[in-house]
Specification:
By secondary structure, this protein is mainly α. The protein has one domain: Four Helix Bundle (Hemerythrin (Met), subunit A). It contains four helices and two strands; from the N terminus they run αββααα. It has a two-stranded antiparallel ribbon with strand order 1-2. A hairpin with a 7-residue loop joins strand 1 and strand 2. The longest helix is centred in the middle third of the chain and has 37 residues. It is elongated.
């Protein structure tokens, strides 16, 4: 398997930075950044009014926001981990086997930290 070129790493880094900006923008629309824990956000509780129907709608909307917040936070953590791995020179190396990750996999899913084979083993698919 060929090693990633500096140009490929830069292209992936650029893609990751764009994704980071998008995720932070999306999170900023309905959350506030946690000042204590990095990459953690707090969903804002909506205020639709004081009627019983409005209160029920607030709770349902808040529940949806929490679910979306958790998904976006995980994606943001994965992006930040990939950027850290680029910075420390460990990007593109399977974190379990130490083998290079296939370039096509990284181009398709830049946050990958394992080879497809390793991922299958971890999920019990092999």
């Amino acid at each position: 398997m060929k090693h990633l070129t500096p140009e490929t790493i830069e292209a992936i880094k650029s893609k990751l930075l764009e994704e980071k900006e998008r995720l932070e923008h999306d999170l900023g629309g309905f959350t506030s950044k946690d000042g204590v824990v990095a990459d953690n956000y707090k969903s804002k509780f909506p205020d639709f009014g004081d009627d019983e129907d409005e209160n029920a709608l607030e709770v349902a909307d808040y529940s949806d926001r929490l679910s979306m917040e958790h998904v976006l936070e995980k994606q943001l953590r994965d992006v930040n981990i990939a950027l850290e791995r680029i910075a420390d020179g460990t990007y593109g190396i399977d974190k379990y086997t130490g083998e290079p990750i296939d370039e096509k996999r990284l181009l398709a899913r830049p946050t990958s930290s394992t080879n497809v084979e390793t991922k299958k083993k971890l999920k019990g698919e092999v």
